[in-house]
Amino acid sequence: MTATLHTATHSPSQPADDTAVLWVHGVDSDLQLWDSAVGLVAEQRHCVAVDLPGHGQSPVWEHPDDYQREPVLAAIDEVIKDMRSTQPTRPVIWVGHSLGGYLGMAHALTRTGDHAIDGLVLVATGPGFRDPDAMADWNDRVAANAPSYSVSETAATIAFHHDSMVMDRLSELTLPLALVIGSDDRAFLGANDYLERKLPHATRTTVDGARHFVMRSHPESVADAVRAVATAITNA
Question: Could you give all domains of the chain from N- to C-terminal order, each with its CATH number?
Fold first, then answer.
C-alpha cells in the first residue's frame, strides 16, 4: 500500500543553495522530533519532515505487510518526488534517526534516477542484523515494547527487520555521509563503530554526554552534519 504521508515544510527566504533536506524519524515518534534541528537548517535550506506510516498525522495502514521496508520506501519516494517537482535535479539529503536512518541507507541502496538521494546523515542509527538470532531478538523486543508505544502494535512492526540487505551492501554506499551519535547511546555506539569501519569516507560526530535522542539535546550537532554533507555534495 502506498498512501500520502503527512509532511511539514520549512523554507528559508534566501536559501544558501538548491539542496533540500528530508527528515525521517524512528519508531514511536513523529516529525516534531526534529523541530530544533530543522529550525537551524531551515535558515539556509529547504526542509521537509515526514511522519512515517501509522505515526504522527500520517495514515494508519492496517495490514502488517504494509509496514515492511519496501512499501514504506515507496511512500517516501512520493515525498521526494514532490520535493523535486519544480527542480528535478535538486540534491536531497536524507536525515534519519534510528529506524529513519536505516531506511535512508536502504533507500540509497535500492533507488536510482529520479528517486535517488544525494547524501545521508545517520543519527543514532544501525545497519540492521546479519545473524538470524540477533534479528529475531530485536524483533521480539520491539513486539514486547509495542503495547507501551503511542502508535498501534501493527504500526510498531515498521521497526522489524526481515533481512540483512543493508548490512550486506554497506560498501555500495559511496554518497556523502555523516554519522552523529551520543557518547552515552550505548545501544548504538557499537553500530556506529561498525559503520565507521565499513564507510571510511563518512564523517563521524560523537556528542559527549548525549544519548539516543541527540537531535533534541544537541540539535546543532545534527545541523553541522547536514552542512558538511551539503558541502561535500557541492564539491563532488
Answer: 7-235 (3.40.50.1820)
